[in-house]
Amino acid sequence: MKQLIFSLILLTGFQFTKAATNPELSAIPFQTNSPDSAKNRKTNVTLTWGKGESTSGDTIRTKSKAPGLSYGLTLSRFDLGFSKLVDNGSFTLSDPNSFLDYHGWKTSTVGFDILQFGYRFNSNFKIYLSGGFDWTHIRLRRDITIRKDAPTLQYDESDIDFDKNRFSSTYIRLPLSFEWRSKDNDRGKKFRIIAGPDFGFLLNGKVKQKSDENGKQKFNDNYHFTKFRYGGFARLGYGATGIFAKYYFNDMFENSPAQEGLQNMSFGLTFGF
User: Fold this and answer.
1) What is the value of pTM for the model shown?
2) How many C-beta atoms lie closer than 10 Å to residue 188's C-beta?
3) Range of 89's domain?
4) pLDDT in tens, 110-127
5) 3-state SS string over 152-215?
6) 37: pLDDT strictly greater than 70
7) What is the number of structural domains in the chain?
8) Most buried in the list 32, 168, 211, 212, measured by CB within 10 Å?
9) How many helices (H) and strands (E) in the chain?
């Protein structure tokens, strides 16, 4: 997985480097247009160097987006933020879930998209389905070890004082985005509002521990994380940065009655629209 992510980052970086060093390439979007729209519906970008109508006198950039279908690789919507457990509508964990007590500032979420398929209706509105990866890292406070292959979500107390005790899940994410964006302002940037449903399929769960006694240890299992999750998300952006929030409607864990009603939400910063 790490090699795949690293390769995608290198590929995208290579594309951006070519665009930055070659003005002709800078007008080429990092996507593949459908055969029907390759000639008439592609992105048209005009770059004019030198003085012009802009008050800065540096660069004038005019973009127009015609309707059309597009698809291809991307490396975008990089989410970095915090995760919160919601126990039947409360941020306070109930007794059956108290063993999942966590460090709020160290419980995080990371995710990004690598594929995209969508349709643009005009310069302001488009719909697209994207695919990527999403991680949730719960930094446990208690010195416990979540059991592997247990019939329900269970744990063992430990007499080891862990320096790090992290309980994580990895999902393939499939958000369906409805995006509205404004026209370019005088700085050449746009405001964006994006919202829609978010679906995910479990790849794996993991316990990662660090201690003086045992060093670094990793244990992989599904840990009863729900295999399919669904929820909603929203993003507000300006230029290439913004904020996001997600809420998953179904429970975090399945086949574990004591965790019924325990859900997950996340929020934070997003980069690369």
Assistant:
1) 0.78
2) 14
3) 67-271
4) 999 999 999 999 999 999
5) CCCEEECCCCCCEEEEEEEEEEEEEEEEEECCCCCCCCCEEEEEEEEEEEEEEEEEEEEECCCE
6) no
7) 1
8) 168
9) 1, 14
